[in-house]
């Protein structure tokens, strides 16, 4: 641009001035490059670790759930499925068609299903050996199924498949085309091909008519936008002729969003990410701004001299901006390289922790979006540098030549309002120096405060992962043993053989360290000669039966206020009836009624009394005595039992209680059975239960084990293929793995924040000393000693730390009890977290800051104040 009157082109001169000014300020350049590199490093490391760990945690949470989908849509017709598959709302749609349950396995309950390639990927069923089935006689099976059927784990081996539909037995001799590892321990499937489905249309039509939930189209869907998943899919289902709202409608389509698609959780995550993103940028802004503010102040006379010889404001801006651009080009690649190296080195450690329990060794670190990470880090860093240099550049360009030549940093204190201070000279001078440039003081304090807040917030969140809370919400027993068949129930096969044998329980009880044994009995579909009446009418309505697990000889009854209940032949409820041994009373919480456990036990075992049970949700919440799980029955109401339509015993409800879901339904399909039977959970003493039910079915065995025998019991149960079990130690390992990952990631991010604060503080103190060398020389020329000068600078530094400590701790408390607490209690992992406030990290970082406040002034004075007073007086500020 031509800025001079006669049109001389001075671009080359500005470039030369920029270059000379740049090379003459080596100290400034080093500090600025460190600041920019550190800011870029902060963004790069956080993005690398954050995106990589988010993917890792999300991947393993999905493996725990057994699906990557945002929602499951059940009960679609073939035409509706095609319309759903082709809709732009969905990024990925998988097709799943249940066919039947295998009847020729030895122990495992196994489904025969059809799944397309998208569905195999969504449910982690892609083969580790071989391929998905293509031919009519090919199947994809899990290694567990082959082991259960005593078949060699080999591609091409024959496998017999048997199942029954509408009492008709089907047998197919199939060939294993692929083998997969079960991603979810409660489900096993044999996957058939599309050719098989096309060749057996009549059989599949019979399955669909069997009202057992088989032969219908299910879809796992991944949304392009996960905002309001339930509402969006419901609106679409209505548009294609389905009814997502009325479960008894002929065209009912069930929509089940997965936990990771929760709107509330996503909103909280985005809110937290936004807040911390702003804090990241502000942290970098303070770091870079202070460097350039001090540099411009230090060079203000140079810019004034340039103005006296005709340099315009625009040219001064260009001169300063070019130097900032040079520093950005040098510092950014360094920060990118260090950030990527750190993030890349941390992720394998994260994966190694996960690989113990979740198969994390299959996660590739190379899948990270490096282009996006680099672009994002450069964008954030460039934007931060641009914002940080605006004010210093403006200051350099707008100062007048005369003002610049005589510039001395002024105190922002009015002489008229100044009060006389009494006391020691050095403390008063330190206080005055902090007040002379309140903006700089505020920036230093805010920078230190940010590091304190961010570090403390990260550790508060990480420390809130609580394995004991997670276990308590899942189970109150060390071990729960049950029949594998309750994990999967179709075609009404939940009968007396779905229990565990007394011999199995006896053998377990003889193992070392077993205590607090609880036997849990319950009625089955085969106990249809026994019915009960709790005073609510359920008119017969079988329209919903096609998606239930009820057998044909049981009907559905529907009440407008209390939903469905299974009915026996005399149109009375079958009932969810449980018998239990007395140790269970120690594992439940009384919600209403008799609260004295000794008296409660006496009434249950010596009278015709029962309690009603409900389950806490994952957050440990329950709607009290009015919870819908109690089906409108109150304490004091009676329940009449019938046998073959004849009244037998009558029981009185004396209490309402609640426990974890595992204590009530034990596992997997057990919850489907309880839900489809309907009505309240009726718990009575095992003695009363055995009097009512001729063939009592031992549904589950709950017990604790002394700590030293826990692993021994795990090994013993794992070898018994006739049972399934869950254990508190397995749950503990699960949550500890996740907790370790979060602590590792949170610790690294917290360490980065602490490093930023430490370097920023060091940088600010050192640059402050450099720019005040002339001032120090004047003070020493009139009698100040080196010891007094060190004392002055230490007091100034300590004052910064004390102010940052007060503000940082108070703000950390506010941040912890607001944003962090909301994230802990409402985030996607709230079921495994318990808010734990701590200020220990904040105190630790403040101690480091205090140590730096003592050491840095001493070291800096030795390096930058080692010339004679006369030499330093000659140096222009």
UniProtKB/TrEMBL annotation:
Chief location category: membrane
InterPro entries associated with the record: ABC3_permease_C (IPR003838), Macrolide_Exporter_MacB (IPR050250)
TM region positions: 30-51, 267-292, 324-347, 367-387, 441-461, 741-771, 792-820, 840-864
Entry membrane topology: Multi-pass membrane protein
Location of the ABC3 transporter permease C-terminal domain: 275-394, 748-857
Subcellular location: Cell membrane
Keywords of the record: Cell membrane, Membrane, Transmembrane, Transmembrane helix
Similarity remark: Belongs to the ABC-4 integral membrane protein family.
Protein's name in the database: ABC transporter permease
Organism name: Gemmiger gallinarum
């Amino acid at each position: 641009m031509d800025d001079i009157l006669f049109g001389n082109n001075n671009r080359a001169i500005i470039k030369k001035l920029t270059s000379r000014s740049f090379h003459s300020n080596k100290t400034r350049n080093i500090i600025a490059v460190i600041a920019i590199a550190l800011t870029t490093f902060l963004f790069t490391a956080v993005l690398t670790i954050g995106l990589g760990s988010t993917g890792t945690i999300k991947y393993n949470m999905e493996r725990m759930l057994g699906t990557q989908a945002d929602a499951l849509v059940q009960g679609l017709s073939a035409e509706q499925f095609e319309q759903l598959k082709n809709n732009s709302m969905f990024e990925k749609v998988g097709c799943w068609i249940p066919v039947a349950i295998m009847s020729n396995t030895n122990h495992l309950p196994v489904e025969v299903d059809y799944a397309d390639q998208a569905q195999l990927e969504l449910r982690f069923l892609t083969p580790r050996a071989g391929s998905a089935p293509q031919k009519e006689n090919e199947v994809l099976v899990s290694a567990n199924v082959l082991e259960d059927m005593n078949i060699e784990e080999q591609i091409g081996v024959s496998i017999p498949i048997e199942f029954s539909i509408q009492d008709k037995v089907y047998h197919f001799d199939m060939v294993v085309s692929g083998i997969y590892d079960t991603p979810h321990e409660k489900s096993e499937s044999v996957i058939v091909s599309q050719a098989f489905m096309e060749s057996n249309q009549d059989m599949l039509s019979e399955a669909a008519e069997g009202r057992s939930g088989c032969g219908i189209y299910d879809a796992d869907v991944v949304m392009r936008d996960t905002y309001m998943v339930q509402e969006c899919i419901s609106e679409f289902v209505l548009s294609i002729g389905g009814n997502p709202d009325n479960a008894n409608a002929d065209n009912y389509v069930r929509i089940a969003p997965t936990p990771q698609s929760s709107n509330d959780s996503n909103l909280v995550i985005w809110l937290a990410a936004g807040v911390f993103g702003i804090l990241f940028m502000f942290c970098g802004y303070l770091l870079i701004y202070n460097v350039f503010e001090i540099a411009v102040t230090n060079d203000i006379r140079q810019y004034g001299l340039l103005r006296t010889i005709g340099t315009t404001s625009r040219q001064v801006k260009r001169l300063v901006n070019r130097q900032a651009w040079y520093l950005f080009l040098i510092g950014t690649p360094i920060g990118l390289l260090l950030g990527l190296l750190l993030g890349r080195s941390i992720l394998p450690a994260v994966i190694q922790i996960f690989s113990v329990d979740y198969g994390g060794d299959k996660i590739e670190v190379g899948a990270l979006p490096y282009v996006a990470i680099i672009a994002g880090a450069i964008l954030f860093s460039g934007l931060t540098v641009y914002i940080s240099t605006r004010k210093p550049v403006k200051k350099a360009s707008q100062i007048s030549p005369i003002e610049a030549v005589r510039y001395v940093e002024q105190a922002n204190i009015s002489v008229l309002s100044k009060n006389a201070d009494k006391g020691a000279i050095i403390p008063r001078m330190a206080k005055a120096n902090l007040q002379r440039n309140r903006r700089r003081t505020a920036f230093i304090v805010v920078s230190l405060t940010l590091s304190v807040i961010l570090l403390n917030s990260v550790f508060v969140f990480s420390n809130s992962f609580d394995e004991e809370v997670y276990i308590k919400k899942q189970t109150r027993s060390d071990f729960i043993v049950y029949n594998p068949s309750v994990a999967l129930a179709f075609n009404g096969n939940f009968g007396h053989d779905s229990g565990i044998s007394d011999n199995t329980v006896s053998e377990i009880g003889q193992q070392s360290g077993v205590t607090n044994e609880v036997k849990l009995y319950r009625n089955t579909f085969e106990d249809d000669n026994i019915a009960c009446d709790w005073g609510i009418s359920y008119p017969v309505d079988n329209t919903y039966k096609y998606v239930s697990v009820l057998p044909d000889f049981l009907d559905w009854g529907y009440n407008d206020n209390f939903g469905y209940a299974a009915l026996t032949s005399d149109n009375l409820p079958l009932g969810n009836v449980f018998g239990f041994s007395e140790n269970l009373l120690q594992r439940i919480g009384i919600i209403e009624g008799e609260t004295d456990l000794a008296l409660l036990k006496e009434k249950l075992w010596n009278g015709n009394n029962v309690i009603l049970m409900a389950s806490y949700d994952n957050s440990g919440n329950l709607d009290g005595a009015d919870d819908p799980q109690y089906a409108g029955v109150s304490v004091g109401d009676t329940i009449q039992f019938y046998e073959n339509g004849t009244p037998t015993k009558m029981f009185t409800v004396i209490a309402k209680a609640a426990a974890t879901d595992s204590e009530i339904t034990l596992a997997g399909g057990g919850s489907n059975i309880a839900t489809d039977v309907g009505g309240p959970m009726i718990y009575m003493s095992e003695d009363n239960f055995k009097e009512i039910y001729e063939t009592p079915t031992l549904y589950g065995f709950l017990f604790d084990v002394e700590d030293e025998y826990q692993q021994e019991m795990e090994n013993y149960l794992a070898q018994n293929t006739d049972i399934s079990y869950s254990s508190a130690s397995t749950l503990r390992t699960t949550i500890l793995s996740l907790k370790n990952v979060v602590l590792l990631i949170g610790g690294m991010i917290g360490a980065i924040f602490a490093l930023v604060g430490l370097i920023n503080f060091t940088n600010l103190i050192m640059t402050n000393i450099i720019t005040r060398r002339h001032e120090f020389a004047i003070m020493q020329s009139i009698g100040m000693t080196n010891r007094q000068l060190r004392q002055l600078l230490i007091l100034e530094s300590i004052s910064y730390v004390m102010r940052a400590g007060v503000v940082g701790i108070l703000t950390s408390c506010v941040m912890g009890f607001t944003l962090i607490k909301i994230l802990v209690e409402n985030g996607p992992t709230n079921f495994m977290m318990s808010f734990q406030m701590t200020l220990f990290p904040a105190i630790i970082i403040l101690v480091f800051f205090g140590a730096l406040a003592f050491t840095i002034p001493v070291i800096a004075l030795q390096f930058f104040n080692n010339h004679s007073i006369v030499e330093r007086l000659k140096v222009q500020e």
